[in-house]
Amino acid sequence: MRRGIVLLALIAVIAPGVFAEGPELSVEGVVINGAILPFPVPMGADLQLGLPLASPGGLPLTAVLRLRAGYEDLRFLRDDATGNPIAAPKDLGLNYFMSPNFQWAAGLVQAIIPAEKVNLLEAFLFYRGRYDIYNPDLSTSVFSDAQGLFGSSVLVGLGYDALAKDSRRVRSGIGAEASAEWGPGAVNEGTDFWRLNAQGEFYLPLLSKGRPENERLNLFSIYLAGYLSADYAGGAEPPIWVMQSLGGRDLKDGLGSRIRGFPSMSYDSSLKVVANGEIRVLGPALFGQAWCIPSVYIFCDTAYYAGLAQAATQSDARGVLSSAGLGFNLDVFDSVYIGLYGGLKFPGSDSLYATYGETQQYFWKLGFLLHF
Q1: Within 10 Å of residue 138's Cβ, how many Cβ atoms?
Q2: Distance between CA 243 and CA 262 in Å, rounded?
Q3: pLDDT (tens digit, 0 to 9) for every residue of the chain, 372 residues total?
Q4: 30, 79, 132, 346: which is deepest, by most CB within 10 A?
């Protein structure tokens, strides 16, 4: 793992002298820890370096290097012996613990339909690696990576990007992605998986007004936002992180977090389908800064899950879970959103709702990022 990270760092240093165009470094996200303090705090970062290569047929080709590292709070809501789901622990301990996590990737992005700033349509191919340090006291009888993982996979897919954000921070357009990932057991000790993922997001402006003294600064705006993902994974030995996430180039939290109000890192099933919808209302830009905007939103989340991988007696668990509520955010530097949200849960036909133990219908939580 150390050699892989050193290699990525070395390439980043020498790249300006090798490639005709300069590299583009971007911050793709922050790593949040919710257990160190009573509120979520950033404890790591996700960085990406783009290196323009030759353009076959006039279509841009880019080499991409990515590194993510952080100190996270993790939960493993399975019984050590049976693999059946258990109640969500409240305190740090065997099934709720903090741990460092490292992820890295290297690959190529080929434009199919280039556009001015980003590719409207592109194909991508990535090698991905990760190093997880889980609680060493967890049993290895359920998931092979329960005591940690050093693994790698190959990711291939197509991406469509017609998204935009104006100076008032009003979003518009459509984005979509379809991908397939394979982590064969031949190169991964103790894990063997595959995953198919399709996802999309859309934003529809309803109203946008600028401040009279400067139209680029927001006064009052409203837009609709939506996200949809379908994720199906399997294999001889699927690792924990695959079951607890939604796939693609940017891994997203699984159903226990995507459906607000339900226990995080739960519903780690083979099939996960999720839909999120929001009406976002943006207030006036504060202190003359375009990025400093308060906002309120109404949200509705729903999901379907099926197939609890490697559970002794509940492997066929399935159900529908939903929630709805209100939230408040303060946009800080366009990458950090401080706020809170609350609402009601609607477990529907969810067969695991009572098992996880968080059955109070009302909920509220401090937030640090946009949901999507």
Answers
A1: 20
A2: 16
A3: 444 444 444 444 444 444 446 789 999 989 999 899 888 888 999 999 999 998 888 899 999 999 999 999 999 899 888 889 999 998 888 889 999 999 999 999 999 999 988 999 999 999 999 999 888 888 767 787 888 888 999 999 999 999 999 999 999 999 999 999 999 999 998 889 999 999 999 999 999 999 999 999 999 999 999 999 999 999 999 998 999 999 999 999 999 999 999 999 999 999 999 999 999 999 999 999 999 999 999 999 999 999 998 888 888 999 999 999 999 999 988 877 889 999 999 998 998 999 999 999 999 999 888 999
A4: 132
Alpha-carbon separation of residue 206 from 46, 214, 224, 259, 282 (angstroms): 32, 20, 7, 25, 11
What whole-number distance in Å separates Cα of residue 199 and Cα of residue 370? 17
Measured distance CA(122)–CA(54) in Å, rounded: 15
**Rounded CA separation 151/133 (Å):** 12
What's the rounded Cα separation, in Å, for the pair 249 and 106?
11
Residue extents of the structural domains in the chain: 2-367
Amino acid identity of 255? L
Residues in the chain, overall count: 372
- Contact at 8 Å (CB) between 221 and 207? yes
Q: 17 in the Ramachandran plot: left (φ > 0), alpha (ψ -120 to 50) or beta?
A: alpha
The arrangement of secondary structure in 2-367, i.e. its CATH architecture, is Beta Barrel (2.40)
Strand partners, 63: 51, 108
CA–CA distance, 253 with 35 (Å, rounded to integer): 17
Distance, CA of 56 to CA of 54 (rounded, Å): 6
pTM to 2 decimal places: 0.90
Cα(37)–Cα(319) distance, rounded to whole angstroms?
A: 33
